[in-house]
């Protein structure tokens, strides 16, 4: 059994992650326009109409911009928890009732040999949650848009084969940037986004013997850079005795360019 995934887009301008097994394929969020989403799928040689469904993490526009268009055009099942459905009302246009499915937080749904588990994160949305994909012994964890990684979360997401993990900002860059203080306070707070260093500390605590790769995701366009995120995370991991390039590999994600479709 093999699971493949690609981070199609990641960042404040739009987020989308594709995951497939031999039997099923899912899109997690569609935070870009329908046309942009179609372009991203073509770059990994996959078709949106073949999806088993779309999983929604929360109602912020960089995660749901294309949800309504894709739902209507391709008649796809859409999964979200009830509070997120309520928060999306009026933001995604009309979606037929038979396409709307409830996916409660801290539960799992099973699709043949694929199990998808939801878990809560700390973010300023109605009821934000992310997903873990299980197939046999394989485990893929997706976790961004959280102000911190709690001990509860660490227990749930531990020892995955691969992680798509938020590394949003450099604290120094954020403090010095042009943002109003209320925006800085939101990002730095418990319901905002996790920094490079804090992300790396959490990574060091959840990594296990199976863990091979971590994709640094949801980087701020204004307050982070790919090289800086990689360097900061690498230094923090190595201070914990984890050697990047030997025990673990770090990968970039991009707001516009999908990562290669890889197997775990």
From TrEMBL:
Which superkingdom, per the lineage?
Bacteria
Looking up SUPFAM superfamilies in the UniProt record yields: Metallo-hydrolase/oxidoreductase
Keywords attached to this entry: Hydrolase
Q: Taking every annotated instance into account, which residue ranges of this chain make up the domain Metallo-beta-lactamase?
A: 13-218
Is Hydrolase found in the keyword set? yes
The molecular function terms of the Gene Ontology recorded here are:
hydrolase activity
InterPro entries documented for this protein? Metallo-B-lactamas, RibonucZ/Hydroxyglut_hydro, WalJ/YycJ, WalJ/YycJ-like
Task: Cite a single Pfam family from the UniProt record.
Answer: Lactamase_B
Question: Keyword Hydrolase, does the record have it?
Answer: yes
Enumerate the CDD domains for this protein: YycJ-like_MBL-fold (cd07733)
| PANTHER family hit by this protein | EXODEOXYRIBONUCLEASE WALJ, METALLO-HYDROLASE YYCJ-RELATED
State what protein this is by name.
Answer: MBL fold metallo-hydrolase
Q: Which species is the source of this protein? A: Rossellomorea aquimaris
């Amino acid at each position: 059994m093999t699971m493949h995934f690609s981070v199609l887009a990641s960042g404040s301008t739009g987020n989308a992650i594709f995951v497939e097994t031999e039997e099923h394929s899912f899109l997690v969020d569609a935070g870009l326009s329908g046309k942009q989403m179609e372009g991203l799928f073509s770059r990994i040689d996959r078709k949106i109409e073949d999806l088993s469904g779309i999983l929604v993490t929360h109602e912020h526009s960089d995660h749901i911009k294309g949800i309504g268009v894709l739902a209507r055009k391709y008649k796809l099942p859409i999964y979200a928890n009830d509070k997120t459905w309520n928060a999306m009302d009026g933001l995604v246009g009309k979606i037929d009732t038979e396409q709307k499915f409830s996916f409660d937080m801290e539960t799992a749904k099973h699709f043949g040999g694929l199990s998808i588990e939801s878990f809560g994160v700390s973010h300023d949305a109605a009821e934000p949650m992310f997903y873990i994909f299980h197939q046999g012994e394989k485990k893929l964890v997706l976790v961004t848009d959280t102000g911190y990684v709690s001990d509860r979360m660490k227990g749930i997401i531990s020892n995955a084969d691969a992680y798509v993990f938020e590394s949003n900002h450099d604290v120094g860059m954020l403090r010095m940037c042009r943002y109003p203080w209320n925006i800085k306070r939101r990002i730095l707070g418990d319901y905002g986004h996790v920094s490079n260093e804090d992300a790396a500390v959490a990574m060091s605590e959840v990594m296990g013997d199976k863990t091979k790769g971590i994709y640094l995701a949801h980087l701020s366009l204004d307050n982070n850079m790919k090289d800086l995120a990689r360097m900061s995370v690498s230094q923090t991991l190595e201070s914990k005795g984890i050697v990047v390039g030997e025990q673990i590999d770090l990968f970039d994600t991009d707001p516009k360019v999908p990562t290669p479709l890889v197997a775990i």
